[in-house]
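step: validate -> pass
step: tokenize input -> pass
step: predict -> running
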Amino acid sequence: MNMQKNSLGTFGKIRHVTALATLTLLTFNSVVLAQPKVTITPDATKNISYIDYHHRLFSLKIPKGFVVGIGKTDYTHFTFMLYDPQNPDISLFFNMKTEGYLKTKKMLSFYKQYYPQSPFAKLPVIDPQTTESFYRVFTPAIAFNQKILPFKVPTMKKFKKLSSLGKNLTGGEIIRGTYQNEKNEHIEGIFTATIKEMAMPPIVLLMVYNTIYFSAKENTLINYLPIFNYCLSTFRFSSEYVNGYYLEQGQIKGNASALQQILDSTSRVIAQGWEKRQKTYDILSQKHSDATLGYERVRDTDTGEIYKADLGFSDYDWHGKYEVISDDMYNLPVAGYIEKH
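step: predict -> pass
step: emit ->
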């Protein structure tokens, strides 16, 4: 009888010790598996707010902190640029019309040889007459017309077309392209312009209408494109501009909607073309950039937000909270930078 009691007591002690050991192991594991804290630095585009910008000639919504530069010119050659004052390559540019371009390099050679003092010997050449060719000479063209622009326009070197997104309302191509700025940094953007001929016998000069572009640092256009497209969609000419434009064109009465349609249509085509674009280039470009800078990209499975993180962030067992993104997610905006500590 005593032996039975002692045996039961021993089993009870064994169960007690086992329970304590299990509790200790669970407590130890909970400490080991406790997730470190993370710090998230939001992308500059993440918390942008918009304010109303009004000028006697036009109005639009702009990101708070951005600046609007306005050309000192007439209605026909109206020019403005919306840009980040900390980095003018992050910009939206619009010019209604510029003229003074030669059609061929042969024409330019002729004037340089026989009439070197002529203004024609200094004109930029758009050859062939395409949107890409125009942006290849954009910097010298702007320099030639700099007197009408009291603000600094980004330098474009080694401009290259990547793909076509469609046509604007006046027939000009809308393209995706890249260039290098004066610091040799790579910039990407969406660009459009319409080239028309102007016969002035014995020569043919060119005019460029509706020059519009969005630009941002390489691999950040995906974040800035919806911002600039939204701003462009809110742009409205004032009645003063519309009346002045048609009076300048020799027309007593004009239709404001005809001018407005150019910008509205361009905004729509850019949005549609961007969605239909060939995305392979973006994936490869973003991957190359991450590898060069030592980043990887992870997705917060709770919010769906995508973040850049230092290599090795995903090696930690986040219990499903953060996961490495799939290739198609490289075409989605980055919400910011995340790090563990």
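step: describe -> The two ends are 61 Å apart (CA to CA).
step: cleanup -> pass
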